[in-house]
Amino acid sequence: MACSTEQRAEPDRAYEIDGVAFLGRTFDEYSRLFGLEPSQLSGARVLDCPGGASGFTAGAVARGADAYAVDPVYGADTETVAARGRRDLRRAVAALDGVEDLYVWETYDGTDDLASHRWSALGRFLADYDDNPGRYLPAALPNLPFPDDSFDLVCCSHLLCLYAGEFDHGFHVAAIRELCRVARGEVRVFPLVDFSTHRYEGLDDLLLELERAGHDPEIRSVDFEFQRGADECLVVDVARKG
Length: 242
Ligand SMILES: C[S@@+](CC[C@H](N)C(=O)[O-])C[C@H]1O[C@@H](n2cnc3c(N)ncnc32)[C@H](O)[C@@H]1O
Description:
Elements: H1 27-34, E1 45-48, H2 56-62, E2 66-71, H3 78-94, H4 111-131, E3 136-138, E4 151-157, H5 169-182, E5 183-190, H6 203-212, E6 216-221, E7 232-237
Parallel strand pairs: 1-2, 1-4, 2-3, 4-5
Antiparallel strand pairs: 5-7, 6-7
The structure holds S-adenosylmethionine.
S-adenosylmethionine binds near residues 50 and 71.
């Protein structure tokens, strides 16, 4: 459970955006930041929560998974969701102006390249949202519309820990419990830092909560770092449910 403490940014500076942005990442980005192997997806029942405007669900289905995504923005018609995605993507890229040094520019060759990955994810998502609406369910943590033990793999990207300014610790505890409730295999959470690149301050308590519930949490290094220090993923083995 090593903590990467090198290259932390100044404590009083952070990327700032109003509310929780409706954004998306590509299947390849998800695979890297969660350290996923293709063999984990084939034949697996998978949940992306929150799915946002991400291409992961479509990509996972193309690789043999029975995949679903949940987000409070889902449920509206495709054009309404597309307009929200386009607006938030432009806002999110513009918000990088002046805080570029909080990021490691290796995966992306500057903000234009980053934006092109986000547009690509949005396009893939919108096509699938239109074609396969039954895979995209409107719901919000900490209440998911699934029975216990529904998924082999539950992925939670860029909500918990990152948006610590929007969601208090009680929400984090309730959300991770809910993600574990609907999982029968693994829950993965990335990143483990907030927008100022500091490790989420309630992380140790979350790990204790998980252990007390009989789960087996592990912080694993991944081959992905965009926010400085965000190169770790929480992997919770929920197979040992009590
Ligand atoms: C920054 S996006 C991340 C999307 C995607 N997981 C990714 O990494 O590209 C955050 C998403 O969380 C969704 N969201 C906001 N509040 C939520 C809640 N209480 N439960 C689940 N999702 C929520 C937003 O609508 C938004 O789509």
